[in-house]
Amino acid sequence: MSTKKLVGLVKGVLIELGENPTREGLRDTPNRVARMYQEMFLGYDPKKKPKLTSFSNPNLHYDQIVSDHGYFYSHCEHHMVPFFGEYYFGYIPNGKIIGLSKIARLIDYCSAKLQVQENLTKEILDTIEKELKPKGTILIMKARHLCKEMRGVKKNNGEMTTMDARGIFKENYDKRKEFMNILALSSSLS
Ligand code: ZN
Question: Which is nearest to 68 in space by CA: 110, 99, 108?
């Protein structure tokens, strides 16, 4: 991503909007936007992809669910405006465990490009499945879509929820329910 090219392109957009990019308030804006894009869209750089270092743990003798919850920020590919919200992740290890901060970093990385929420949810689980080969994974993403809230129909509730479940979580309803119970428990504790 060339900073210089991005600066020029942002300047062009400002002019086309009817703005004067040399006025004081806007003078540094193309530069700031270019640097912000480089940060928010680092998901296009394969070198920035976090390594999912895992640890062997053969002592896990039953189908223990490991769960995590956090926030994510992405941009929709149709309008280039943010969609952002919370994720709820769970997995059942298969002899290998992973630090939950790695999951958070992977979600940040996958979020940092233009896409639709359905594909984001899928891509995250695809990557974890490939690297960790767990017995099961589940991911729920709940997000506000500003393209729905700010334009067109201007519906207040631009919320969308996606869920993907693999392995035991897909095949076994009770296990999926157990995960939902953990979520209910953790939200009542917070
Ligand atoms: Zn959109």
Answer: 99
* Residue 42 CB partners (closer than 8 Å, separation 6+): 48, 109, 112
Helices (H), 18-116: 29-40, 100-111
DSSP state of 25: G
Q: Specify the DSSP element, H or E, that contains 132.
A: helix 117-132
Task: Answer yes or no: 78 catalytic.
Answer: yes
User: Does residue 55 share a domain with residue 22?
Assistant: no
CA of 134 to the centre of ligand 1 (A): 33
Residues of the domain holding 82: 48-189
HSE (CB half, 13 Å, CA atoms) of 120? 31
* Total domains present in the chain: 2
**Same structural domain for residues 52 and 15?**
no
Q: Angle CA(182)–CA(52)–CA(70) in degrees, nearest 5?
A: 35
Please give the pLDDT value at position 153: 67
Distance 146 CA to ligand 1 centre (A): 7
Instruction: Give the predicted TM-score (pTM) of the model.
Output: 0.90
Residues 6+ apart with CB under 8 A from 135: 63, 92, 93, 94, 167, 168
Exactly one of 147, 149, 159, 178 is catalytic; name it: 147
What are the pLDDT digits (tens) for 70-119? 999 999 999 999 999 999 999 999 988 888 899 999 999 999 999 999 99
